[in-house]
Structure formats: C-alpha cells, structure tokens
Amino acid sequence: VNPYGETSGVALTVDANDLVWFKDIDVADPYGRGKGRAENIADEIEADEYASKYQKNFFFNDATPPYIVTGYQGNQQGADQIKKSLMQKIGGFLHAREPAILTGNVDVKTVGIAPKELDMVESRKFLRDECLQHFQIPPEIMGIIENSNRATIDSSFYLFAKNVIKPELEWFERILNRQLCKEFDIDLVCKHNYEIAEDEELKLRIYQFGVQNGAITVEQYCEAFGINPDVKDGHYILPMGVNRVQAGEIDLPDLPLEEPEQEPETEPTENDQQPQANPENVENVLALDDEPTKKKKKGKSIVDYQLDLFSSQKQIKYTPFQQKCWDLFDTKAREKENNFISKVNQIANRQNKDISALLAENEKENKPIENLLAQYFSSQVDIAVRKTLGAAWLESIRAGCQNAKEVLNKKAEPDFTAMTLAIFNNWIDRNGLIKAKEINDTTHRELLKRLREVLSESIANGDSLAVRTKKLQRACDEVFYAMSKERAYLIARTETAGSVNLGQNATYKAYGVQEKMWLATVDSRTRDSHLFMHEVRVPIDMPFEVERKDGGHDTMFFPADGSGSAENVCNCRCTIAPVINL
Q1: Quick one: 373 exposed, middle or buried, by C-beta within 10 A (0-12, 13-18, 19+)?
Q2: Residues β-bridged to residue 544
Q3: Pick from 451, 495, 440: which is nearest to 476 by CA?
Q4: How far apart are CA 373 and CA 472, in angstroms?
Q5: What is the pLDDT of residues 530-579, one digit of tens each?
C-alpha cells in the first residue's frame, strides 16, 4: 500500500501511520514493496496468457486457408472467378461432402493443423493444474470434476478451508493485531470465528468404534449426529463376554492357594554345611550351588501363583554377569531387527503386486477369491519367503555366535564362520520352510478375511466387476501395508531373538559349556510363564519346559525357539546364559 494514491480520479494523501500494511516481506529486500506468492508461478501465468491469445487468433482467423489450389495458368481475375464459382457450387452445409471437379492441370494441397494447435487445450489444462496446486486449491472447488467422486468433492471443502482460507485469515489476524488493535487497547485481540468442517467419515468411524467397544453410550452417538434416540438411559453396549469394572479392580477367580509343604526341621550335619562365597568377587559365576533352580509344581494353575509372582518380581535382580549376557543379547538383537523389517517389506511389496495382478486378471473370469488365494500361496511362495529371509537369519545367527564368544572372553579365538554356516544350514533345513509357511499362512488368513468382507459389501452395493476389482485391490494394499508395519516389527523381534539365541546356544556347546540358564526380561511386559523360568538351569543339550496357558508345556532349547507355541515365542525378549561352576 502506498500512502499516496488516487480515489475517483482525485489524488489522496494519507499519513503512513494511518494505514494498515498487508504485505508479504521479500527476504531479499525486506524494505521493498514485498513479494506476492503468484510471482513463483509467473512463468505459468504468462504462458497461459500467451496460449489464450494464440488460440483466440487461431479461431478468429489467422489467414491460414484449409487448402490451396495450384497449377492454374490464367491471370488473377480468372483465379478469383474460379474461387467464387467453387464456393457457390460446394460451399454451405447443403453441399457438404460433394466432390469438386476441376478442368486443366490443377492440383489441390491441404493445409494441415500443426500439432501445437491440437495440443493447446491439454497444455492449458496442465498450466491450470499447476496454478491450483501452487495455491493448494482442490480442483473440485473450481468446478473441475472429471476425476472426482462424492468422497473427493466432500473432502475438497475441508482441504480448501484448512489449507487456503484458514492460513489467509490467520495472516490477516496477525497483521491487524500487530498494527491496529494495539492502537486501541493493548489487550485487544482480533480473532475470526471460522470453523473448519469436520471430517464426517472419520467422526463416524470414531463414534462407531466407541459404541461397539463400550466407550460411549448410544445416546451420545445419536446426539453427535443429530439423531433423536429412542431411549435415554445412558447404557453402554459391550461385546459378548466383556464386563465393565472400576479402574483398579482385578477380577480373579476365587481359587484356594496351596499351602507349601512343611519339611521337618533337622539339625544340620557337617556334610550339610557348605562354604559361602562372595559373588561380587567372581563376576562369571551365575550360581554357586550345584542344584538347578527348581521349577514350580506341576498342576498348579497360573492364577494360583500369579499373586506371588508380582509381589516377588521386584526382588529379582541380575548378577553382574547376567546383566552382561542380557545387555549383549539385547544390543545385537536390536541391531539386527532392521534386517528383518527390510526383508518383510520386500515380501509384502512383492506379494501385494502379485495378488493385485491376479485380481485384475480375474476380473473377467470371476473365480472365487478362496481359489485364487489358495492357488497363489503355494509351496513355491513359501520357498521364496525362506530365501528372502535367509540372509537376515544368517546375520542374526552370526551375531549370536559373536555374543557367546564375548561372554566367554574368547575374542582371540579363531573365527567361527564355518560353524556359523553349519548352524544356519542345519536350522534352515529343519525350520526355515516351516517359518516361511507360518508367515504366509497368517498373511493368507488375514487377506482372505478382509477380501471376503470387501467382496460382500461390494456385491450388496451392486458394484460392477471393474469397481469390485478396484476395491479388492485397495483391500490388498491395506493388508500388506499393515504387514509392512505392525507385523514386520513383530516378525523382526521374534525372529531376531530366536536366531541370536540359536547362535549363542550352539557356540556355548562348542566351547564345552555343560549347563545353560534362562534369563527373563524382568519387567511388566514379560509373560508370567517366562518370569517363572528365570534362572532355571538345564543341561546344554536339553530343552527347557515352558508352561502354556492350557496347562501343557512347550519344549524349547532356548527362548524364542520356533519349536514352541506362538504364546511362548512371539515378541519374546528372553535369552540364555552359560552356567560356569567354580
């Protein structure tokens, strides 16, 4: 704004202190006139202006005839006469498509339209879209709906208000508050009462989830969407088998606790007296007695000993040597998790691409989804997954071997490359394909469940085969996106822990260690059954017996051993340590 301007043709002089300056500062010249945002697309605007003028001139008349007649040997007057006669005979819509027959040695040459004239409309559309993108204006706001649907049209108003209108109003408020409001009152603030429309679809999802899981009442749901509820009782809807309890309450069954057996007191003999050692002076001793830690009594339910567990959990502490073992394991496991995450992402992307292509091919044949997926998830796909994860498994096993050497202070020993490869090959032959099939089976189940839901919904809506295929492909994208995120981290944590522990167990055995000990991660996230395994000792060649919730046991040679059930393997963070008696 210039303090010296014109109004109605009359010069007007205004003091600069009486003006409110709305100006975008030019960083290169902060005291200049400023710099508008349109300057960044000045080339596009000028190009569109020149294209518009060129197009106008083309349609008006750019003196380019549609065809030229050559070969006439007479004078100009005779040529004009032929032209006039030709227009009279074949000109106008009544003579459209009639042939013209000329005498003499005459040739007719058509003057074609250059490609740039034909492509002018598309070029201007491109320039238009560039300008809209620069100002973040959705095309639907300007009436451009060639590629739009109801969802994008509704979203366009939300995006326009959020990305265009709101920033402009906030900029307007800042200028007024800085230059004008303080002139009246230092506490006066200008604020626009401009509300951005809610995302109705997101709001609907949130409220539906809240009702279905007992977080909000039906009455609250109806009020949010302007519906008059039939009943105003404030009740919650809970899923079957779920009860609401007050915060802090623990709903445990009232089962009697077994009383420990009282052993008769006897006076100690000379053979019972054992020398006491100070564990602080011996860092690599896990336990000084030769008797392995006793397991809990079999047949005792998990509820019976659950109360005793958390009362004694704080008393469980690592010895310095145990802490060293767990720290080395945790560091290596975390380092190798990214290898598995990367490989799982590769598997998800490849399978998503393959299945989306199968769905597109199936658009005409319309085979059942069950048959399509069963045909894809064959043994060849299991082998491909095993091959993809092989490098990550090998790296984790190698890290476990290195960990064991550091624990035993064998850093100067020869490299165990040959042994590592032998461990890897043996494990791959026995468990690699089983692991790969488990991953594919889970993907198969989740994908089939999701595709069935989308297919039923699409059929109920009466969608065409093309629309149905697109929806099925989007559902595939959702399933494999989840696989590349949540499932990738779960697979990475589980497989890394298992393969690192495998390498450690084999290396301890190779160095002659006779016993191994289970080290639990002592925190609130650790399974109850794994906390009770803490410091349980078994011979190096023997498996641990880890209790399941159904009362049975899993035989596992190390934590996260794939031979165990999912409840004892998935997300396990426990490890093993060698038992060295001095």
Answers
A1: middle
A2: 556
A3: 451
A4: 12
A5: 888 888 999 998 999 998 888 888 899 999 888 888 888 888 889 999 98
